[in-house]
Amino acid sequence: MDFTLVVEQTLNGLQLGVMLxxxxxGLTLVFGIMNLVNLAHGSLYMVGAYLxxxxxxxxxxxxxxxxxxxxxxxxxxxVVELVALRTLxxxxxxxxxxxxxxxxxxxxxxxxxxxxxAAIYSTLPEFLSGHVQLAGNLRYPLYRLLIIGxxxxxxxxxxxxxxxxxxxMLIRAGASNxxxxxxxxxxxxxxxxxxxxxxxxxxxxxxxxxGPIFAVxxxxxxxxxxxxxxxxxxGGIGSIRGAFLGALIVGxxxxxxxxxxxxxxxxxxxxxxxxxxxxxxxxxLIYLLMxxxxxxxxxGLFPVRGGS
Amino acid sequence: xxSRTATLMAILLLLAAVPPVAAYFAEPFYLDLLRRVMIFAIxxxxxxxxxxxxxxxxFGHAAYLGIGAYAVGVLSHHGIDNGWLxxxxxxxxxxxxxxxxxxxxxxxxxxxxIMITLAFTQMLYYLGVSIAEYGxxxxxxxxxxxxxxxxxxxxxxxxxxxxxFAILVLSLFLTRRIVDSRFGLVLRATRSNEARTRAIGLSxxxxxxxxxxxxxxxxxxxxxxxxxxxxxLTPEFMNWTRSGELMFMVILGGIATTAGPxxxxxxxxxxxxxxxxxxxxxxxxxxxxxxxxxxxxxLVxxxxxxxxxxxxxGDKHE
Amino acid sequence: MKKTxxxxxxxxxxxxxxxxxxAAPAFAQQKVKIGxxxxxxxxxxxxxxxxxxxxELALDHLGRKVGGLETEVIxxxxxxxPDVGKQVSDEMVKKHQVNFVxxxxxxxxxxxxxxxVTNAGTFMIGTNAGPxxxxxxxxxxxxxxTSWQNDQTPEAMGKYMQDAGLNDVYLMAPNYAAGKDMLTGxxxxxxxxxxxxxxxxxxxxxxxxxxxxxxxxNPKAVMVFYPGGMGINFLKQYxxxxxxxxxxxxxxxxxxxLSIPAVKHAALGxxxxxxxxxxxxxxxxxKFVGDFRKxxxxxxxxxxxxxxxxxxxxxxxxxxxxxxxxxxxxxxIAAMRKADFKSTRGKFTYGHxxxxxxxxxxxxxxxxxxxxxxxVMEVQKTVFTNYKDSYGGHCAMxx
Lengths: 308, 318, 399
What we know:
With 308 residues, chain A is an all-alpha fold. Helices cover 75% and strands 3% of the residues of chain A. In chain B, helix 1 packs antiparallel against helix 2.
């Protein structure tokens, strides 16, 4: 097999992985701290993509669009938390799943009212649309490299915030013992709102990075949401480290499966088997992985250390 | 007879009276609509057994709807139209798949259970989409509805209606018996306090797994009915949003109540039909009915926890 | 709070009787009722909106009178779900007692809807989906379509690429029945070498991994089928990966007037086959496209719209032929078989299975009239003249 191709596909897997991580980080934080299952997390991703695309069209500046899009998604996230989700923290998972399922319908339709049901135009700015010569005959799109860079930087930043700052200390404390944190006089409600807004902003960041390369349309969030859930379940719910490693594993498994499963099956068993089972198996691969992980390590691969 | 049971009886009497009334007013459409409502009610009843009484939040219940439908479709595709066999296979295959999925997922709880049931259903969905022999994503037309050796003709809307009605009544009765039995007592106990169940020397696992399999089997039967209702089947029956809808029916109707799933199925499907089809409503409601459905969903979960059953006279929480 | 059982029962019965009494029986009508089923919610709703716009334009052109009779069109949303489509069609037939059901975008919805409509003795006029079952063994005298049989379009593309002497073609499609049908149809007429055949997950947003595999294979040409949102993702990424200049891209049902606004220049140079194009120069089409743009602030209609417009005109021609006698179904069938109306595709005839025998063209996405305008699809050449679908042989209907 062509070595360059393997490297290129590994980069693709890494890129999908960091994208999933940006979404998984917010989801897993919200779950770990507020114990909230938020299906509408994908809607925030969609909101981020729409806002950034819209601001880019309005202002003509990609950088400004990123900033405004991020701020906008943060705001939307905070409003959703204050209006709807706040009352759900003490409820069971069932209520949370259903109420946030309702929010998905609401957001998809709201976006359709504001921007129409058709996908809207979004593209890369000229200066980001080129390719980089990495080695020999390996050329890789600059924008995809940028996504990898941003994703890794965010991971580093999150690690810093969670393990080195006061806010991070509260987050960790909140995740392991909520009542105690509240008893110590910390405004737990404010902490929740901050964490949720933070998670929303990360989802928005993933959305605005995705805008130029994907179709920006209502419902775009659900397609990726289920993969994100797979990530946090594999990684161990509530753990940022788990979300990061889980995202990379899912990104790699999915990408390499799509790229090499069919040729591998064709070579090992028969071309007919490769044709018949390859594509179907590739789309089921991450779910098989998740089922296997849950069967043998129900807490995920990298559970929160010492957490509840 | 408690007054709650009486209310349920009244609703069932009303459902039984629909065919003659619809025939009198020459409105056969309502037969189709209510038959579909009852089929989804059976599926919701099956979900309520594990979700309501067993506390197992299955986010993948649509899988059995699909398996039941495919059992009928695949057999029919190969020229076997015998309804006894088709429906038997629908129930059996659903039970078997439920046993396989259950044996892994029932060990987990909370969010893990939600996600693993979702994951298995996604796998089945992609499997259905990719099998070209059985129509893949396009689905399969059911050329002939299930045949019951001349005993009952499913092409006769009224006969089919009463058959679905009978199965509905039977499911209500059976789940009630199960819930009230010793088995049901343990099942309900595992929901409210797992540790205590263990302490009195009972392992919750076999009880929960049995309930999971029973529930899957009943939902498979609903799938067989749905295939006959639509005369068509598709992997779309297993879409994850379907699982969400089934859960919503249970909640909307009133979780862990006998009449709840029936009321919930009726509530959701009639609401959908009304929001989009009722010309009295302004155009902006009709066109964006999903927006309002979403808001109603959120409001029901937040403020009407006891669901429609809670509005019925004589309701007292157990 | 405790009411007696008796009073509860009485109240429920009364409520039911009341709600039933609103639904008074329908009386004999001198009015054409058309039930138009499409997807109006969710992502597919963009196609439904285009179809509805075209239907409304057709009604305008007919003075809101189909066949000279007062007309009511009832729109129904199938939510892209077959069982919902079936329920909506039952509602149209049994409750609204429509004379014609029309529309339907998706093959799977059509397979659930069409038999249930025709079994009830009502006309089904398909204006998009053309699954092979309905062209073959499940053909029906009450079913007509103003679109095409699914395979015709890829067959036309295969023919074109075969004639152009292309070899080492790389094929891609989503891993579902329609995807496989498309590539099978393509291979029915294309006999050259295939460099690779790749099926991707349905609704997969990112094709970067598959595009890397494609580049490594170094084919001479690429042929894909990516409808709707998948096509938008694919085209953007194909263009961003710099493959546009490297491997010429051919496609079916991937680029159209609905997706162009979302990809703009990324569509430039794209080659598609189709039975219709906005620049076809026949009188009906010029009027349709012109008035559509006028009525819907400059929007160009898509082929979905053109077919739906034709659907209403087909019904109009049938009702006129029987002079408004809607009970005369035999007469209307005979009239429709003549395809005696001014179609936006120009003159065509019906095959014995009620699928059009029509031309197919090679279309190309070229730059719009001004620098800021979106690309437009324009006819390059005729690939097939009076082309018949491949499934008619399985249809037992004779006339």
